[in-house]
Amino acid sequence: MKCRKVIHFIPLFAGSDLPAKTREKVHGHLQDCRSCQQEYTEYQSILQQTREWLAKERKDWEEAEWKTTVQSAIEKTEEKRSWLVPWPFKKGWAFVLMTASAILLSLFVLHPSLGKDKKGRIPFVLAVESPPEIVSMKLVSKETGLKINWFFHKDLKLEVME
Amino acid sequence: MKKEEELITEVLEGHHDSFEPLLRPYGQGMLNMAYRMTGNIEEAKEICQEAAIKVFKYLGSFKREKSFKNWLYKTVVNCSYDSLKKNSHYNVMIAEQKKSFFDDSYNPEKNYSNLEIKEKIQNCLRVLSPKEKAIFLLRDAEGFSINETSQILGSSSNSIRTHLSRARQKLRKEFVRASHPKNGEIFS
């Protein structure tokens, strides 16, 4: 492996981040090349000091602040969820619906005649009208004043009256 | 102490009290990841809360065979990206980066003081792209392996290596640049 290629790998070699094969090749080159070795020593020194500093200088939560952060995350999520639930499935609405259904059901069980007339029929059922048996049409002449009435029976018989 | 798996089951069954112990081992890591991504502690705390909301909301869709820690960090990184976009911190940081500082103490063999390293790392983080920054922090600050980092960010190992290499080159440049400023920079 040539210096130009090795220098490209040194930043990763210094942090032990190269795959085994490449690492071996770079390691072999560094045994013989002083300038690359110097480059490697420099990277290693910088990286080591950086890692040590990053490990040492760490921020931390105050206990109360940490607990508040997590608790408010839970509350905010729950709040959003409750808004997302459609109204019939919200707890309050579900309770009202179930109570109303239970009252209505119990009324029908206790008073089976509720909503029926004296003969036991349900008065509010809509009656379906039968189709008309006769359709009529009147023709009047403007000149003579003659009136003709046409009647169409349901069996398609035509009847004309003057 | 309950296992992570048990805590997840309890939260999903509606025991909200189990959510805090589930996140607790990663609380500090979440905060530091978000803080170093944005450079602002208050913003980092908001990111952590946003991440906690997402984790709580989508815990049901989390695949149990995968690592919860990785999933949690993925959420933190994504929330940090959103925050960076929203607040345009990245552009501001690049502008600030132009205000260079002078340091004549550079020596590869030298052990820098905490303050020097802090300044150099902070300057380096300012010039990294959000993705390079996330990869660099996951690997060199949080100690994730290349494979874990690729799982967290959903990129291939090769892509992670490329970005990591670039980030470390920028880090080194920052160390060198700080010690050998260009002519005229000292007087600007």
Describe the structure.
The complex is a heterodimer of chains A (162) and B (188). With 162 residues, chain A is mostly helical. Helices cover 56% and strands 11% of the residues of chain A. Chain A is built from 5 helices and 3 strands, in the order αααααβββ. Chain A has a 3-stranded antiparallel beta sheet with strand order 1-2-3, with no helix packed on it. In chain A, helix 1 crosses helix 2 and helix 2 crosses helix 3. The relative contact order of chain A is 0.05. Chain B is mostly helical. Chain B is 69% helix and 0% strand. The longest helix of chain B is centred in the C-terminal third of the chain and has 23 residues. Chain B is elongated, with a radius of gyration of 19 Å. The C terminus of chain B is likely disordered. At the A-B interface, helix 1, helix 3 and helix 4 of A face helix 2, helix 3, helix 4, helix 7 and helix 8 of B.
Largest sheet of chain B: none
Our estimate of the beta-strand percent of chain A is: 5-15%
- The structural class of chain B is mainly alpha
Give average pLDDT of chain B, whole number: 83
Shape of chain B: elongated
Low-confidence segments of chain B, given as residue ranges, are 97-106, 183-188
How many helices of chain B?
A: 10
- Order of strands across the biggest sheet of chain A? 1-2-3
Helix content of chain B: 55-70%
The greatest inter-chain interface is formed by: A-B, 40 and 41 residues
User: What is the strand tally of chain B?
Assistant: 0
**What overall geometry of chain A do the principal axes of the alpha carbons give?**
elongated
Q: What separation lies between the terminal Cα atoms of chain A?
A: 120 Å
